[in-house]
Design brief:
The protein has about 400 residues and is α/β, with parallel strands linked by helices. It is about 45% helix and about 20% strand. It folds into 2 domains: about 150 residues, no CATH class; about 250 residues, Purple Acid Phosphatase, chain A, domain 2, CATH 3.60.21.10. The strands form 3 sheets. A 6-stranded mixed beta sheet has the order 1-14-2-3-4-5. Helix 1 packs across helix 5. The radius of gyration is 26 Å and the shape is elongated. One of its GO terms (biological process) is lipid A biosynthetic process. This is Calcineurin-like phosphoesterase domain-containing protein. GO terms for molecular function: metal ion binding; UDP-2,3-diacylglucosamine hydrolase activity.
Amino acid sequence: MFYLIITIVLGINLAWYLISDYWLRHDLKNYPIARKYTRIALVLWMLIIFIPIISATLGLGNPLESGPWLWTSALYLWIGAILLWMLGMGIVAITIWGFKYYNKYFNNKEQQNEENLNNHLSRRQFVKLGLVATPPLIVSGASVATFFDKKNLNVRIIDLPVVNLPPDLEGYTITHLSDTHVGILTGRERIENIVQTANQLKSNITVITGDILDNNFDYMPDLIDFIGELKAEQGVYLCIGNHDKIYDANKWVNTVRNAGFNLLLDESTIIDTGSTPIKLLGIDFSYSELQDLKNIRRAVEYTNTPGNSLKLLLTHHPHAFDAAVQANIPVTLAGHTHGGQLALRMGEDYELFNAGNYLFRYVGGIYKKEGNSLFVHRGSGDWFPLRAGVPTEVVQLRLVAQS
């Protein structure tokens, strides 16, 4: 499967290069200097893209792991962009060829003089050159933007209303992290920033709601260091996400548990707060609401429930909230959505557009249903190096009684 994907990616890139080079040679033939340097730029761009792919495929190592972050960002963005752009180039090319043959066979008028002038680009040539130049320019610009934005880690302190909250838990604090995606894009520097920021909040507990690892098990030592450096008065607790399971779910679970961390996998634990206890539950990742409900019930039964305890659920996918409502779990914390990743905002509370709304019922922030509360985290790290309007965050939740 890996080599099939690599072959497809390389094939699409090669097709883009050949089409682009043909257009440059053909449409800039009257501009030899411009043609020379644009073709050189095209070759250099392809080398930037191809070197890490070919190197990793041949087993020579991945230069992105130690290379500049901009290089990594450009490659990730390019692979996504080029798939869409090839479709666009194909549509434009078919349209251009259609008009060309229409004019040739059905239009008896002579072509306009501007098509034959040697010192002007025709509209058709200009469109094609734009198609060649736009993807590298957009990807380069986006990479530069993400480079400067990746150090912006928002700290949000949020009151989370809870129905029938025991008075002695009023103001109880939870540092919530999620979707750190420890790996190429969330490296040691960003991890240390997350740890330092989280520890400075000095919450009662710290939780991570999944996707702690991106997908490469080589970064597990960094993940172990990351979790081990987190501090909270009453403990640090985790649940698993879909990215944590990509490489080898059992190996990931065993590694985390052997390190002595509090991973809740369809399990629960009782947190002694000094007053009203909290029954903290964590469930396995699932796309099925029916499976979520089974997992929650299994977690509830894992430990005896003190009569006055507050139940709080950790889940990666926010859609598990619907199952939590059925199971009468007052508070659910989730991640997974990255807040939609791309959003157009006017202030903190008003969105004109959010890509996550087309994928998820719960995208980011606080949701209420039948008296139960959900908070969806926007993510502390990245698996894809492009965010707009949805910065990474470290959140401190303060439990407050819902009036």
